[in-house]
Amino acid sequence: MFSSFSAFSARGRGAARLAAVTLVSGLVAAGALATAGAAVAEETPQNQGGATATIGGLKTYGSAVIHDNGEDQPVSAGLFEMSVDNGGTLQTYCVDLHNPTQKDAKYQETAWSGTSLNGNANAGKIRWILQNSYPQVNNLAALAEKAGAAGLTEQDAAAGTQVAIWRYSDDADVDAVDPRAEKLADYLEKNARNLPEPAASLTLDSPAVSGHAGEKLGPVTVHTDADSVTVTPPADAATSGVRIVDADGKELTSATDGSRLYFDVPTDTADGSASLTVQPPPPVPRGRAFACERRTLTHLPDGPSASNGAGRAPADWAAEGPIPALSAEKNCAEGGVDVTAANEGDEPFTFELVGIEHTVPAGESRTVTVPLQEDRSYDFAVKGADGSEKRFTGMLDCRTQGSTSEVTTQTVGEPSPAASVSTFSDTTDLAATGSSDATPVIAGIAIVLVVVGGAAIVLVERKKTPGQH
């Protein structure tokens, strides 16, 4: 099933990269290596940090019309709501107009580079729109005065904001049906300015570590905009003796931005693995992206949120032999997934990836880029010479569909499920899935920017501080 891809690029050596991969419309599942020598296939969701959320329904919306190849397609445009794991909600707007949303799809906060916003020169303008329109700006009278749209309602504001976002995220020819919503969309499009990508609420780097029992394994570096985060040790720490410590061996229960965490594994510990969890208390920053493992609508969060994200970092150890740590990260610039193997053992680690054999010397790291088809789910494994396997699954969604795709419609509140997708060797046109004869709603697989999401990507923004524009 991988025969259609014959070329891979091994790109240098170095530390394993941060795997911020779970896309809304398809991120890579990543994590650490299976226990050394275990002849089993392990599949661990990739989540090195940030919030995770489940998409709900379209909540506040109006009507819009997409003009495509001489035809007009009516769609609903507005805010979705996402339920955040560990509590809280996000409101989000959609991007990637020509793909369907899917109710109850899971999203993961991720960097813009892991979404279709990658390479989009107007991505920062979308963040500006989120920051300067509804619901972040909830004074509708003031917003209406700026836009020249007297009588602006919440529905008009949501529809106008979504339309303006689509014009920049998809380069779409789309208009709001209500004249007030259209005036707002024009105002936002005209005045939008590029803003930088916000920092992640939480990320952990490296995404996976390994080494010998009796050593401190790591470091796992914490990156967060919180004053402090909680560090939870492995579940069996009391019996295994594995502790989470700093470089000096001091046990840690909390960390700050830049903290370096280590797994302190007792010398006599049997070969095995464990993981730590970092939980941040702050809201997800507005403008962050959310991505999903399934191909569905992407969304942009907008407005303050009490949502919390969590990061997980696994570690593997053994007494001798190769001790690999495996992770993966979507690489939109190269159109594939970067699989990184870092070998902290005392013997070379040889593995097979999509039919090609690679060897990583002891103490070194290697990253292999697996080229993938856009908008196709994938499922491949890193197979160790000892019979162990580590699987990576997800979907590559780095580009919007463009105006040549059929616009998919959904029913408000209960979007039609997207058709199942096969592995990346399939040629099914995902843009044609999930269609319905019911009331047209939103078509799209959005990208970055927090509001409430879809299945591709969502961005989150914080409440504005005084003087912020």
Poorly predicted regions are: 1-48, 295-299, 303-309, 403-469
Shape: elongated
Helical residues, percent: 10-25%
The biggest beta sheet is recorded as: 7 strands, antiparallel
Structural class: mainly beta
Q: Supply the number of helical segments.
A: 5
- β-strand percent reads 25-35%
The first-to-last residue Cα distance is 50 Å
SS elements, strand count: 25
What would the average pLDDT be, to the nearest integer? 73
Rg, rounded, reads 23 Å
Query: In sequence order, what are the helices and strands, one letter per element?
Result: EEEEEEHHHEHEEEEHEEEEEEEEEEEEEE
Q: Topology of this protein?
A:
Layout (H helix, E strand, L loop, with lengths): L8 E2 L30 E2 L9 E17 L2 E14 L4 E7 L10 E5 L12 H10 L7 H8 L6 H16 L4 E3 L2 H13 L10 E4 L3 E4 L3 E9 L4 E4 L4 H4 L2 E3 L8 E2 L4 E5 L7 E8 L9 E4 L5 E4 L9 E8 L5 E8 L4 E8 L5 E5 L2 E5 L4 E7 L5 E8 L4 E7 L74
Parallel strand pairs: 2-25, 9-18
Antiparallel strand pairs: 1-23, 3-4, 3-6, 3-7, 4-5, 5-17, 6-16, 8-10, 10-14, 11-13, 11-15, 12-14, 15-18, 19-20, 20-23, 21-22, 21-24, 24-25
